[in-house]
Write a structure and sequence with these properties.
Elements lengths: L3 E5 L12 H14 L3 E4 L11 H15 L5 E4 L5 H10 L7 E5 L8 H13 L5 E5 L1 H4 L5 H8 L4 E6 L5 H10 L4 E4 L5 H6 L4 E4 L6 H12 L3 H17 L7 H9 L20 H11 L4
Parallel strand pairs: 1-2, 1-8, 2-3, 3-4, 4-5, 5-6, 6-7, 7-8
Helix pairs in contact: 1-2, 1-9, 3-4, 4-6, 6-7, 9-10, 10-12
Length: 293
């Protein structure tokens, strides 16, 4: 259902701090032309934490509108309150989205049983396919493979985005959940290795600015040509690393603006624009990766 290079799409903002829908439309066209396999709108990289509910919903629906059925669109619907995550999922019912990406609850640090009950309640409240999202570095809680296995028994929980970088988990999760349970990397630096271990693809930050390279790389990998895929991956490795020189999505929005993919690189507080000291670091990575337009 979901595989290959899926982009964790940035949300462009204008000088007034409002969503720049013209740039958003251009980004959708960029990814369709580049061969990106799916778009994830309003995830962490999309600054979902600082957009209002109305803005969140509108960005997803506009992304769908611009896509016109040419590329699957998933919606970030996570929250640290179960009822809020359910509300987001219900708001997209019948919209045409391909599924929901639902992050583990952040800050309140539930137990494994709490995580199970959280995701179970969300899945039972909607028919939309659910992709779990485990990113302990952001949330402070780690969704364990044994809990994932319990959740995988629920019909519309179809996969997981794993941003731990813990490659042995791929095999363990496959053994516990079966080959049909979708495993997507949330860590660009280890994404290709994740697929080599049996994963199905990546939800990528790097794809925001190197869409064609990422799409080509994962098509090669999924066809079994890891040698050719690794050549691309090694060239992109500076980006995989330096796009996190400051908190995501600060560097990638700056880079997208430098490449002319968006009109501005603005973010909403508490995120601030890329520091002057980090700008040469990201620019060097763009040059090393040969993605400058």
């Amino acid at each position: 259902m979901f595989s290959g290079s899926m982009v964790a799409l940035i949300t462009p903002l204008d000088d007034a701090g409002e969503v720049d829908y013209a740039s958003l439309a251009s980004l959708v066209e960029y990814h369709i032309a580049a061969g990106t396999d799916a778009i994830v709108a309003m995830g962490t990289t999309g600054e979902s934490a600082t957009l209002t509910v109305d803005e969140h919903v509108k960005v997803v629906l506009k992304t769908l509108e611009y896509a016109q059925g040419r590329i699957p669109v998933l919606a970030g619907t996570g929250a640290n309150a179960t009822h809020e995550a359910i509300t987001f999922s219900k708001l997209f019912s019948g919209s045409g989205i391909a599924g929901c990406l639902t992050v583990t609850p952040y800050y309140n640090k539930p137990t494994q049983e709490g995580l199970y009950q959280h995701f179970k309640a969300i899945a039972e409240a909607t028919d939309l396919p659910q992709v779990l999202y485990n990113v302990p570095g952001r949330t402070g809680v780690d969704l364990q493979p044994e809990t994932v296995a319990r959740l995988a028994k629920i019909e519309n929980i179809v996969g997981i985005k794993d941003a731990t970088g813990d490659l042995p988990r791929v095999k363990k999760t496959r053994e516990l959940c079966g080959d049909d349970f979708i495993q997507l990397s949330g860590d660009d630096e280890t994404g290709l290795d994740f697929v080599a271990e049996g994963g199905h693809g990546v939800i990528s930050v790097t794809a925001n600015i190197a869409a064609n390279d990422m799409a080509t790389m994962f098509k090669l990998a999924l066809s079994g040509d890891f040698a050719a895929a690794n050549e691309i991956n090694q060239r992109l490795m500076p980006l995989h690393k330096q796009l996190f020189v400051e908190s995501n999505p600060i560097p990638v929005k700056w880079a997208a603006h430098q490449l002319g993919l968006i009109q501005h690189g603005h973010l909403r507080l508490p995120l601030t624009e890329l520091s002057e000291s980090a700008q040469p670091v990201v620019m060097a990575a763009l040059k090393d990766a040969n993605v400058l337009l």
